[in-house]
């Protein structure tokens, strides 16, 4: 059997394959990073199952289980591309938690305080970005699809991860966004743009949100764009109790992913258990 070795040509071919499969830019970068990390670990050694299992154990020592699993997923995809199916390894099993940590969950009150802080600092754009993400459930990367044209018809068409879906914009949000674009002289295209006219990027939004933490009295661990999406999911599910519909709105392929978004805190879990009145 021919010895298996890693080289840059194989990794480049894998990258081209992912591009042909129309994988997202984020997925492409993630897979390339993880495969290069494995290549650095392997060096010029011959690759066999024992070496891969050893690497798997190293990942468990140095990373959270979810992070290690995502790296193994990238590695398995690379092995399958190379035809090295016998090298694929199982991911670590994770017991799904019934509740999430309170220090990570953004509450409605904290969300309101972030908006108040943004207004106090004169950051109207940031205020509307926060409300748009939280009021629609979109990903921060999908913010560019909130356009002047979308405001006009009350819905946006989002193309992400090879899937196209409609996002409805409530009348009050449209009214505020129309006023904003009129004041800024934005007549077409994306609503939230930089001075150069390009859609505002994720890192700038993240940084500006973090700057609100102290004034809003909200722990920085709770303040990041994706947590707004989680708040939308929990609020929607609390009203509708329809996880399948929520999965469609969020653009999830699997309902199991959506379940993560609607996990409540331990305090809420305790309240629910207390309401069962089983301690007599």
Keywords:
two-stranded parallel sheet; 4 strands; two-stranded antiparallel sheet; single chain; 6% strand; mainly alpha; 58% helix; 14 helices; globular; 280 residues
Q: What percent of residues adopt helix (DSSP H or I)? A: 55-70%
The 3D shape can be described as globular
Given as residue ranges, the uncertain stretches (5+ residues, pLDDT < 50) are: none
| Oligomer classification | single chain
Give the SSE order as H and E letters: HHHHEHHHEEHHHHHHEH
Strand order across the biggest sheet?
1-4
Average pLDDT works out at: 90
Strand content: 5-15%
Structure description:
With 280 residues, the protein is mainly alpha-helical. It has 14 helices and four strands. The protein is globular. The termini are far apart.
Task: Offer a concise description of the structure.
The protein has 280 residues and is mainly α. It is built from 14 helices and four strands. Strand 2 and strand 3 (163-168) form a beta hairpin.
Question: What is the element layout, followed by pairings?
Answer:
Blueprint: H1 8-20, H2 25-42, H3 49-62, H4 65-82, E1 99-100, H5 108-120, H6 124-136, H7 148-153, E2 155-160, E3 163-168, H8 171-184, H9 202-210, H10 213-216, H11 225-240, H12 243-250, H13 255-261, E4 264-265, H14 266-274
Parallel strand pairs: 1-4
Antiparallel strand pairs: 2-3
Helix pairs in contact: 1-2, 2-4, 3-4, 5-6, 6-8, 6-11, 12-13
């Amino acid at each position: 059997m021919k010895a298996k070795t890693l080289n840059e040509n194989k990794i480049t071919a894998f990258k081209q394959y992912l591009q042909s499969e129309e994988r997202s830019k984020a997925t492409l970068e993630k897979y390339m990073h993880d495969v290069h990390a494995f290549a650095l670990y392997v060096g010029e050694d011959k690759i066999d199952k024992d070496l891969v299992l050893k690497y798997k154990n190293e990942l468990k020592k140095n990373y959270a289980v979810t992070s290690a699993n995502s790296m193994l997923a990238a590695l398995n995809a690379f092995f399958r591309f190379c035809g090295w199916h016998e090298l694929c390894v199982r991911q670590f099993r994770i017991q799904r938690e019934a509740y999430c940590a309170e220090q990570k969950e953004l509450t409605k009150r904290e969300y309101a305080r972030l908006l108040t802080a943004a207004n106090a600092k004169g950051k109207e754009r940031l205020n509307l970005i926060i409300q748009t993400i939280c009021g629609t459930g979109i990903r921060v990367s999908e913010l560019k699809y909130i356009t002047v044209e979308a405001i006009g018809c009350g819905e946006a068409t989002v193309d992400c991860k090879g899937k196209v879906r409609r996002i409805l914009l409530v009348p009050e949000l449209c009214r505020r966004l129309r006023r904003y674009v009129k004041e800024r002289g934005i007549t077409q295209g994306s609503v939230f743009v930089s001075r150069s006219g390009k859609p505002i990027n994720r890192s700038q939004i993240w940084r500006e949100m973090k700057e609100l933490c102290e004034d809003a009295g909200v722990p920085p661990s709770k303040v990041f764009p994706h947590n707004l999406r989680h708040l939308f999911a929990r609020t929607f599910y609390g009203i509708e109790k329809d996880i399948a519909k929520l999965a469609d709105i969020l653009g999830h392929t699997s309902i199991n992913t959506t379940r993560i978004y609607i996990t409540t805190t331990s305090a809420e879990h305790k309240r629910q258990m207390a309401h069962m009145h089983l301690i007599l």
